[in-house]
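Subject: mismatched residue count in predicted assembly?

I count 619 residues in my input, but I want to confirm that the predicted structure covers every chain. Input:
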Amino acid sequence: MRLINRSPGPALRVFLTLLPFVLVLVAYMIASEARLAVNPQDKLLPAPSTIAATAERLLTEGDRRTGRILFWHDTAISLQRLAIGVGLASLTGLVFGLLIGLVPHIRATFGGFVAVASMVPPLAILPILFIIFGLGEVSKIMLIFIGITPFLIRDLAQRTVEIPHEQIVKAQTLGASTGVIALRVALPQILPRLVQSVRLSLGPAWLFLIAAEAIASDLGLGYRIFLVRRYLAMDVILTYVIWITILAFLIDLALRWLSRRAFPWSGDGL
Amino acid sequence: MLKKLLLATTIVATTAMPAFAQEKTEFKLAWSIYVGWMPWGYLEDSGIMDKWADKYGIDVEIVQINDYIESINQYTAGAFDGVSATNMDTLSIPAGGGVDTTALIVGDYSNGNDAVIIKGEGDLASLAGKPVNLVELSVSHYLLARGLDSVGLSEADLDGVINTSDADMIAAYATNDVEAVVTWNPLVSTIMEEPGANKIYDSSDIPGEIIDIMFVNTETLAANPDFGKAVAGAWYEVMALMAAGDEGALTAMAEASGTDLAGYKAQLASTEMFYDPADGVSFTSDDALKSTMVEVAEFLFDKGILGEGAPSPDFVGVEYPDGSTTGDASNVKMRFDTTYMQMAADGAL
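Triage response: the counts match. Full output below for your records.
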């Protein structure tokens, strides 16, 4: 039997899924133990028990000055920034992607511009963003927006162009106007693709969020990570990294679930 | 897969291992760009370091790290035998992290290089109710805390401090949101060129409290006194060149820091360099250093920077040249030692 035709059984599947996680954990524990044996106060690779204790403190104890539990405040403000940034980017990406893909005049106008603009590294023009949008919430949201919108537009425009031309012709013979074709033929096929593209953009979106928070901020997950890096508090950083990973994973899972529920015609994806 | 992982684990666990007390012949120092540390780059480039290292039969490599905090973190993790840092960051990162660290060369203190700048008229008291942009938990933060203290205010009286990357400080200052910044040179001189920029407090108001030092691993130094001798010898050779106004050396340092000779000299003017090793020795032996370190430890503890394992500001012990200590005498992790500066002063290197 060829290798590509062999599938693991249920038990083996669970084992194989867990294996890389366990290996990484074991590797971490060995390295941590080795360093702590030399210097019990080593901060670089804290013991898992230290991370657990730090996590418990972060999740339950308030800040000494304000009494707020900063962990939840950081999470709330970061998720808010991420949601607004990704939300605006999705909406813009959908509208422009659809129009560029469908309307030749708009494609001629914006197609080239978006292709070029998507190549500009947003982090390199930060000072300009600061002057235009200030240092507050707007600049952080804009960095996420500028970072992922061009990709979304290009991807969705491409998907729109790829809609079989026969469908468009058929809709026209049935008397559909441009607006009806956009809303009834193209949109239902593009929406599931939008969710897929957003899932793929979430990685870059987190990156831009953390970069924005590292530059000028007083609250947020990225802010906290860069702040405590000043005294190498890896126990705090790792707690936040695990938390960000969980959040990103859950958001990804939720989007996949949404895609399946809302667009059952789009089929299964990874 | 398993093999690779084990290999990777071994590499992480061993390459960056805290240095053991053992004799060796190869040493690595890390430094980052700052007016008082530019000589380190010149030491490496001019071959003066190699000359002195050869004299003692060792090899010393001086590596520039672009990110100051990262250079200290790398040293703390064990990738370097020494690092250029301030007294404050050394107490919090390596010493607080259990890496026993010794001040080999006390190079200078900031005498105006760090400053509080506001837009328009005002003084420290007018900061009340305003947001202040700075690199949080840095010497800027310490300077602000000392300044506010001097006029009876505290950080709670501000409209918060906003952590702002030093790389973006100048762009941040140009935005309307920003009313006050605390930062260091060369950023201070660039910001002061803006119309309306008003310096209301700087480190010359707290002279000798923000100290720039070459720190080395205590155990490595104890096992390899030649390492200390070679570095001190090379450093003070360059100090003599600078004190004599050697244009070649100063221009090289100016260009490496991204300015010209005049700009570099302007920055040196607000830096109290200890060109003469005897000055470094007397500064380090002065009792004022003890009260500075106590002040710094209290600031660090107040901001939670000493870590959660720190029950009080006295958690880390600091030892001084006369053998006295501040903080926990049973947990001395930071030492001021004038041995090698004294050797340089005596011409015994």
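The longest helix of chain A spans residues 178-215. Marking this ticket as 'not a bug'.
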